[in-house]
Amino acid sequence: MKRWQITLGISLVVLGIFSLFNQLFPDLRIGRFTGPLILIGLGIFVILRPRMAGPEVKVLIPILGDMRNTGAWEVTRHEIWWFVGSIRLDFSEAVFPEGEGKINIIGFVNDIQIILPEDVGLQVLSTAFVNDFHGLGGKQERFLSTLEEQSLNFTTAEKRVVVESIAFVAEVKVRPTML
After folding, report:
1. Are residues 72 and 42 in the same domain?
2. pLDDT in tens, 65-115
């Protein structure tokens, strides 16, 4: 089971419990506790998420903004949490340690631009309410579904990376390196 499914399932169970308590104990008015409990939970998550991910995962929680990974950056394990953000991943001069790199991008609106050289294998997984994908053989638009694409050389390439996006709206653009 994927992480987003577990998170969604837990959220629905918690909301169901709040609704049940509200019906069983109408004088308790549990609805007035919901907002503060959500804020407390988000605060605890922001504090503990880097520790939960492990020391080998670089966790960033910028909330809003743009990120650019260009030049000689190290493609290892990255996890980015934000509300709305844009990221440019340029693998032209990137350093790939042994194994496969993995970049998880979780947000409400994700705008992802990938610059892909011929010697890098790429797999893109995007789960969103609305998916818009350009590259690797065309354009795709998906509604309420998961998009999965990979370069032809993904399984055979020495340098490989998996980019996974979980969002309400996701736009992913992949283009080859300009010479």
Report:
1. no
2. 888 988 888 888 898 888 888 999 999 898 888 778 999 998 889 999 999
Q: What is the pLDDT of residues 122-157, one digit of tens each?
A: 999 998 888 899 987 788 888 877 888 888 888 888
Contact, 165 vs 129, CB < 8 A?
A: no
- Say yes or no: 61 and 141 in one domain: yes
Q: Look up the domain containing 13 and give its range.
A: 1-53
Task: State whether 63 and 48 are in the same domain.
Answer: no
Task: Identify the bridge partners of residue 114 per DSSP, sorted by sequence position.
Answer: 89, 174
Cα torsion angle, 53, 173, 65, 74, sign: positive
The model carries a pTM of: 0.72
60 and 48 fall within a common domain: no
